[in-house]
Amino acid sequence: MKLELGYIHIKDIQFSDVSKVENGILYVNKEEVKALILEDQNFQKADVDLAKPGESVRIMPVKDVIEPRVKVEGPGGVFPGMINKVETVGSGKTHVLKGAAVVTTGKIVGFQEGIIDMSGPGAEYTPFSKLNNLVIVCEPVEGLKQHEHEKALRFAGYKVAAYLGELARNLTPDEVEVFETPTLTEGLKMYPDLPRVAYVEMLQSQGLLHDTYVYGVDAKQILPTMIYPTEVMDGAIVSGNCVSACDKNTTYHHLNNPVIHELYKEHGKTLNFVGVIITNENVYLADKERSSNWSAKLAEFFGVDGVIVSEEGFGNPDTDLIMNCKKIEAKGIKTVLITDEYAGRDGTSQSLADADPSANAVVSGGNANEIIELPPMEKLIGHVEVADVIAGGFDGSLHEDGSITAELQVITGATNEMGFNTLSAR
Amino acid sequence: MIITNNDWVLKKYGDKFNIVYVDGTFKDVLITVRDKLHLGHELLTHPLGGSVKPSETPYKSILISDEKNNINFNSVYMIENAIITYHKFNKEKLKYLDEKRIEDLKLIDLTVLESALNK
Question: What is the pLDDT along chain A (426 residues), one digit of tens a residue?
Fold first, then answer.
C-alpha cells in the first residue's frame, strides 16, 4: 500500500471573512466554524480562538489535538468510520496542513488536566506550542451526560479539522513524502538480508474518557490485528482518550506516529518494516492475556526478528506492556519498549507498575512526576475556572499571580510514549 | 465478586452481583482484595486504573472470582505491586474534592468496572 503525503506548510493562522490558505497563512472564517460545531444539538454555545507560537497564551483543559488533512486521491476520506465511510484508507494522496492544528477543550468531568502553554518554560514541554492552533471551546446543553459530551466534542474536533483540511484540496504541496509498505511476501523478497521489524502499538481502551477508535470501532472490542502504517496517516486510529495529559496519544500523535515515520526512514536500509500490529489495554485480566497472546502470535506469524512496542497511559497498561514483552520475547523475537515513568518527584521510585527481566531494552519518555513551574500567561483559552481545580485539587497548585506549580503530567504530550516529544531518561 | 468503596457500584449492582462494600479508602479496597486473594480467590480485573491515578481518585472497584482455589501467585504479585504503586502517589490532593468531582470520579470508576462486567 502506497500513500503520498503532500505537506502545505502553515506559518500563521488568522481570522478572516473567507476560509482559505494563501502564502502559508491559514485564514479561518470564525462564524462558519462555529456554525459547524453548533450543527450538533448537544452544544448550546461554541467559540473558537487562535493560539500561535510565542504568544503569552495558556490553553486548558485540552482534550484532543488534530491535524487538518484531506484525501485528494484514492479511496475513502480522513477519519474513516467516524466522519467518513468505512472505506480502507492509506493509499493515494493526502494533503496535510503542516504546522496547524485543531485543539479541543472541554470540561467533561470535574477533574482536569491538559495544559498547552504557547510560550515560556511550559511551551518547551509540549510539541503543540510550535503549531498554529485553532482552539475550540464548546458549552454543552444543560444535563448532557458525560459520555455524550465527550463524543460530541470528539466529533466537533474531527469535523473542524476536516473543514480546514478541505482548504488544502486544490493546493500544490510545498513538500511531498511517499510511504509504501509491500505485502509480506514481496517484502521478504525485496530485503532478504535485512532484519524484519514490526511495530506493536498499544491503544488505551478502558471506558469513559479512556477510549481509542479504529475505523470507528471502540478498540476495547477488537482482537489485535494488523494495519498498514499508511492507514494510520489517514486517520484510521483516533483518540477519545481524555485522561493523563502527558502520556495520552492525541489524534495528532496517531496521524504523525513517530515510530512509524522512523521505521519508514530505515526501511530498506537497516531493516525491513513489515507493518503495524495494533492491540488494546483492557481492564479485564483475561482480555489482557488474550490480547498479548494475539500480538505475540501475529509477530510470530509475520516472521519478524524484532518489534517496537509503544504503550499508552500508566497503571494497568504497564501490565499489558510487560505481557506483550514477555510473550513476544518468548517467541525468540527481540523487543524494544517505549513508555514513560512515574518515578516519584525525585525520580528514585520504581518507574512502572510491572516489570520483567525480558524488558531489557526500554526507552523512557520522561518522568511524569517531575515538578515544573509555569509562569502566568496573559491570556487563557478554554475553561479558565478549571485552573482552580488544578490548583486546589489535582495536579498542582495555582498561585495568586496565575503561575502554576505542577507535576509534568498536566502538560499535553510532555512524556508521550510514542517518543513524540524530546524528554527522556538514562 | 466485586470489592468496592464506590456506593454507586453497590446501588447499581447490589442485586445482581456479590458485592463486598468497603467503607474506606482506595488502599482499604486493595488490602481487602489482597486478603481475599490469600484465601484463594483469583483477581479478574487489574487493581490499578488505566491512567486515573490513586492520587486523583479515592474510588476503586475490583472484580475477583467467587470461587476459591489454590492461591494464584500472579494475582498476589499484581495486588502487591498495586499496593506499592499506591504508596508512591501523594494523596494530599484528594482532600479538596467537591461534590461534583466526587460524582464524576464515582462515574469513572463505575464505567471502568462496567467495561469488564459487560463481557
Answer: 999 999 999 999 999 999 999 999 999 999 999 999 999 999 999 999 999 999 999 999 999 999 999 999 999 999 999 999 999 999 999 999 999 999 999 888 766 678 999 999 999 999 999 999 999 999 999 999 988 999 999 999 999 999 999 999 999 999 999 999 999 899 889 999 999 999 999 999 988 788 999 999 999 999 999 999 999 999 999 999 887 899 999 999 999 999 999 999 999 999 999 999 999 999 999 999 999 999 999 999 999 999 999 999 988 999 999 999 999 999 999 999 999 999 888 888 888 988 899 999 999 999 998 888 999 999 999 876 665 555 434 445 677 788 888 888 889 999 999 999 988 876
Give the closest-approach CA distance of A286 to chain B in angstroms: 7
- Element (H or E) spanning B3, and its range? strand B2-4
Q: How far is A115 from chain B (nearest CA, A)?
A: 17
Catalytic residues of A: 242
CB pairs under 8 A between A and B: 122
Task: Report chain B residues whose CB lies below 8 A from the CB of A389.
Answer: 101
Residues of B in contact with A316 (CB under 8 A): 46-50
Residue among B85, B101, B107 minimizing CB distance to A146: B107
Q: Residues of A with CB below 8 A from B49's CB?
A: 206, 315-316
ipTM score assigned to the predicted complex:
0.89
Q: What are the domain boundaries of chain A?
A: 2-410
